[in-house]
Design brief:
heterodimer, A: 358 residues, mainly alpha, two-stranded antiparallel ribbon, 4 strands, 2% strand, B: mainly alpha, globular
């Protein structure tokens, strides 16, 4: 009844092409941003920041990155964990080498470094496709993790082989290291997440996004109508890795504080983020957020129910969680291959007609 | 001279490891050829088969950890052990049942989906099976002993010492694995060449629609192929399990079958074997010559990078069918 285009007159092409053409959506979006920026920072506590909101925002950034590569450009990658590790180690090396430069610049630089590495590993995508490429990206995953483990220069020759984030501040607020307030962590990640989502949304609906989608749908046909596959594939790898690198940098610097590469950025991380975009919806920015929220909340929920509620041992609960995640992936692929985003779209379609059935 | 002989030993050991990789890769190829599904879960199927085998042999109660958690009582074993041969048979039955369930519950509902969707579904299957194996049989590292001889083969060492003046260390288990792999491949070739079902299987691999039109039941063939792949997974699981214990890392070793396949080509059984041997020898030699210089443990990634570099020059692998693309 309220969710209608009717009465919401667009007077320019700009208005007509906006992301939220329906007024209620627009208000909802602004209200959400207002709550996220103006309310949550004042009520957030340590548990909510560390267990839910900060990992959610960081995974959402990584999921947007992977979604650009897999969902928009159609190049399946299993190397996300490795690329996140590049971002993490890049920000670590940069901030320990140049402690005076602003950490935000370091995070962005880490993204750029990851983008370059991603493009390097994306080069074979011009020759190999589909499963072959997926397995080839495993090479990136295993090689990068091995590299950060075996070359002491990357972890500044520390005895434990770990990297530890020193304390850095921004605008007089401590934002990394042990003394950080939950609100500061949350706000930093929120700013990055909103910026990444905004950039990704505008890239994917512009020329370059259309090129990616053309390559995804059929690369030979795209090439014939004048899309340069070299350009399209490499930019997809570059942009995707840039976001994934930022996520990796934040994951290490803000969320973990100390990291060991095999544990924090192993193959499981790659799959976790792949699952996020499958469940959330391939080729959808909203889906990346939804999937990240789902995969962050599910373990918390299961842990509360199985360990807290029913008193099961933690390891058993972890295996049951594996089963549930695996089964969910299969169920989502069977019932709704386009994920939570498609459910959201269907809901909106229904809402526009409500209260009439047709 | 010693260095050379030592390298020869490394090559030989690499060949033996390669046979093990080929065993896992074989399961992938069978399924991919017949149903076009790239079964990521093959490695976990090896783990699951090995876990089930050990569980049955030790007379463990299935789902013991789960049942203990629910009822609050300690439930452990039935209190008897099952002889190895019978346990292998029972595990084979379990794997056939699993193949049937996978077809009924998953593949049937995903007919006509894009291959990449099927691939991701098998990743989900891999997670599910991994959790299921742990919940059913417990996650502790288990020793698998089905009576395969283990340890260094003294006769080979004595013989090579007499001939070359340098004794080769070769694990007897590896020799058994090589023999078993040869027999398995021979049996598979015989099956697909000389039996009715084998011919039907090849027909399906060639062309689904043509096979359907001459009255071959796709559904039956897929169950058959997954069962055979389950059996191959069982054999591979026994070999790997006897070699390094039954534990989660088994499924990571099995993941190495992927670069093996890429090298050999997804659709070729000889490709799986040759690819396995090349990767086995390659990674051992690389570790031996280069690994020491760069800090070791290169085996974790060498296979993947080798396959990646190789594919850039020959995208369909060594024996794969030529990829022809049309709009």
């Amino acid at each position: 009844m309220f969710y209608r285009e009717a009465g919401d007159f667009k007077t320019s092409y700009r208005d007509d092409g906006q992301t939220f053409p329906i007024r209620l959506d627009r208000w909802g979006y602004y209200a959400l941003l207002a709550v996220a920026f103006l309310v949550i920072p004042f009520v957030i506590d340590n548990y909510w920041a560390n267990a839910i909101l900060v990992p959610f925002l960081i995974y959402a950034i990584a999921a947007i990155g992977l979604n650009i590569l897999v969902g928009y450009a159609g190049q399946l990658s299993l190397g996300t964990g490795g690329f996140m590790a590049v971002g993490a180690y890049a920000v670590y090396k940069l901030t320990t080498s140049f402690p005076d430069i602003n950490i935000v610049i370091h995070v962005l630089l880490a993204g750029i470094i990851t983008a370059l590495v991603g493009m390097l590993f994306g080069l074979p995508s011009l020759r190999i496709k589909g499963f072959y490429l997926a397995v080839a990206t495993l090479a990136a995953q295993f090689f990068l993790v091995w590299l950060f483990n075996k070359v002491p220069w990357f972890y500044n020759y520390s005895a434990s082989g770990q990297i530890n984030m020193p304390e850095r501040s921004l605008l007089g607020q401590v934002i990394t290291g042990p003394g950080t307030t939950p609100a500061a962590k949350y706000l930093l990640c929120l700013v990055f997440a909103v910026a990444v989502a905004w950039v990704a949304r505008n890239l994917t609906r512009g020329t370059i996004g259309r090129k990616w989608m053309a390559i995804r749908d059929m690369d030979i046909a795209a090439e014939i109508i004048g899309v340069n596959p070299l350009n399209a594939k490499l930019t997809a790898f570059g942009v995707s890795s840039f976001f994934v690198g930022i996520a990796g940098a934040l994951f290490f610097a803000v969320y973990l504080g100390a990291a060991e590469v095999g544990e924090a950025f192993g193959l499981n991380k790659s799959f976790l983020i792949l699952f996020m975009i499958i469940i959330g919806g391939l080729g959808s920015i909203f889906g990346s957020f939804a999937g990240a929220a789902f995969m962050v909340l599910l373990p918390v929920l299961l842990k509360n129910v199985l360990v807290g509620g029913m008193g099961w041992p933690t390891d058993l609960a972890a295996y049951v969680e594996l089963m549930i995640v695996g089964a969910l992936i299969i169920i989502v692929l069977i019932l709704e291959p386009h994920g939570l985003a498609q459910l959201w779209r269907l809901t909106k379609e229904k809402l526009r007609l409500w209260p009439f059935p047709h | 001279m010693d260095q050379l002989l030592y390298s020869a030993e490394v090559v030989l050991n690499g060949l033996m490891t390669g046979v093990m990789y080929a065993l896992v890769a074989l399961g992938f190829v069978l399924i991919f050829k017949a149903s076009g599904v790239f079964n990521y879960a093959q490695g976990v199927m090896c783990l699951f088969a090995a876990l089930t085998l050990v569980g049955i042999m030790n007379g463990q109660v299935p789902f013991a950890p789960l049942l203990s958690a629910i009822t609050g009582n300690r439930i452990g074993t039935f209190g008897f052990t099952v002889p190895a041969a019978l346990a292998v048979l029972l595990t084979a039955v379990v794997m056939v049942g699993l193949a049937w369930l996978i077809n009924m519950l998953i593949l049937r509902h995903l007919v006509n989906q894009a291959p990449i969707i099927l691939f991701m579904a098998t990743i989900g299957l891999a997670y599910f099976l991994e959790g299921l194996g742990d919940v059913m049989w417990g996650a502790d590292v288990k020793v698998l002993d089905v009576g395969i001889p283990q340890g260094i083969s003294e006769s080979v060492e004595a013989w090579t010492h007499a001939v070359f003046g340098y004794g080769f260390f070769i694990d007897r288990l590896d020799i058994v694995a090589a023999v078993v792999a040869t027999l398995l491949v021979a049996a598979l070739v015989m099956f697909s060449q000389y039996t009715r079902q084998g011919r039907a299987m090849r027909a399906v691999a060639d062309d689904h629609q043509a096979a359907l039109s001459v009255g071959i039941s796709l559904r039956f063939i897929w169950v058959l192929v997954w069962s055979i792949a389950g059996f191959v997974a069982l054999v591979a699981g026994i070999m790997w399990g006897a070699k390094s214990g039954v534990q989660f890392s088994l499924s990571l070793i099995a993941l190495k079958a992927l670069p093996v396949l890429m090298l050999g080509g997804f659709t070729s059984i000889p490709g799986a074997i040759v690819g396995g041997l090349i990767i086995g020898v390659g990674e051992k030699l690389f570790e031996f010559w280069v690994g020491q210089l760069v800090g070791g443990a290169t085996e974790t990634w060498f296979a993947y990078v080798l396959a990646l570099v190789f594919l850039v020059f020959r995208p369909q692998g060594l024996f794969g069918e030529r990829i022809i693309e049309r709009v």
